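Example record for the data management plan.
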Amino acid sequence: MSISLPRHRSRLPDPDLGALPVIWTVSVSRLTGLLGDVIPEFDRRARIVPINLGFEEAVDVIGQRLRREHCDVVIAGGSNAAYLRGRLDVPLVPIQANGFDLMEALARARRIAPRIGLVTHATDVPTFGSFQHSFGLDIEHRRFVTREDARDCIADLRANGIEVIVGTGMAIDYAEQVGLPGVLLYSADSVRQAFEHALELTQTLARSGASTPRRRGPFKRPDSDHALLGDSASMQQVRERIALYAPHDSTVLVTGATGTGKELVARQLHAGSGRRGRFVALNCGAISESLLEAELFGYNEGAFTGARRGGRVGLVEAADGGTLFLDEIGELPLPLQTRLLRVLEEREVLRVGATEPTPVDVRVIAATLQTLEALVEAQRFRRDLYYRLAALRIALPSLHERREDVPLLVAHFFRLLGAMDSPLAPDALQRLGEYPWPGNVRELRNMIDRLRIHWQQGHGELSLPQMLQWLPELQGIPVRIDAPGALPALWPVTRAAARPPADELKRVLASCGDNREQAAAQLGVSRTTLWRWLRSDLD
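Corresponding structural encoding:
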């Protein structure tokens, strides 16, 4: 099943409407009646709004309504769905006939007349050869793209002696205009599956943290809460790279230690790309391999024991038309690296249990705190995938490398947390600048949040002794620099780190005051990897 995703999402739903997703159905002709029969089954799970229009009229009306109303997903069928795809500002899920629908429709048609014409849109390619042969049916199949094509198909079939038409609603309308009886290809089950997929899509996007897409336009600096702040030369270069790379569809590899803002870079690349779909994020190290495959690529009904009815949309499909951000790409298992390479090279995704791939238009941005070159040499990462991902590269500097940005970031985080400006005394601010920042900007923001909670009790200037009382990690930590420009000893190594012995893990944790984020940074691994190491020690 293919899914088209939006350029723009309308305003948030009214609180009165509760948490139910909003689904609009778009249909004409007989499909409208079939939808009307099924909608009551889902009205407790979604707010469903029927729009009984098609093609240009549907696009115009939906565009006008989206300016004042909210919609999560649109459902349409056949040629109507094909026309709407890519022209709407909301996700679209097509109603698709399955093999049982086709057999049932052909059986009904056979009771009307022996010579049957099957007319479907070019995007619907049913397989019925074995069924036709087994039951001795005389079937001629025609596919159309435009309404004129559909009329021509019906005229051609009628001229060839076809007596009954099985097809989409529009095909049946044209058939009846020339005196041929028609049987609708879709069934109530195919409509139910479309609703299930639409509901699953809203949940998938919510789980992945999919962000609001933007309309096409020039690159703009995001809101201050999502800006890459810093006046240092290194940060100016990063912003220039983002502006340069954003409009292109090439993959981007973002490198940097934990807490430097890799996902923020990815979101800015998407915001400036002009891509119509959503920003969908996945942490490759946060999900087990068995679940990761289904989460990333989706699965068909019956693909494995426990697979849900109707299958499931994967994040690759959910990002169709937009950007897929794969964080901690070095944690992606080798078998899934092969499948990801196929997505990048063939622009199609094969669900688990599927035999036919689904075309997708997705831009991939990957991030890593490990050195992928080292993983390639260790045969833990595919060389061809590495070259494909690293078409464009952005390396993020550590906060230690741009200490001149610390005062600006401190003031910014205090403002975000409700203060007018930084309340830190000059010597307290200087001490922050001397800290090696193993957790980078994320660690700084967490520290400022802690300071803000304590500072709100007094609302005066925050002195150095007060700060050291509330941030004990700043006490007694020397800034160890072996050579000019070298990184401190607490800085994470850039090679692919091997798992240290259990005693070494405990020592590192103790030296970081049991702060797992700092320990992961010191070991040069992700927090997820550290968590796995610690969990294996407990097992």
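Summary line stored alongside the record: Residues 15-95 form a domain with the Rossmann fold fold (CATH 3.40.50.2300).
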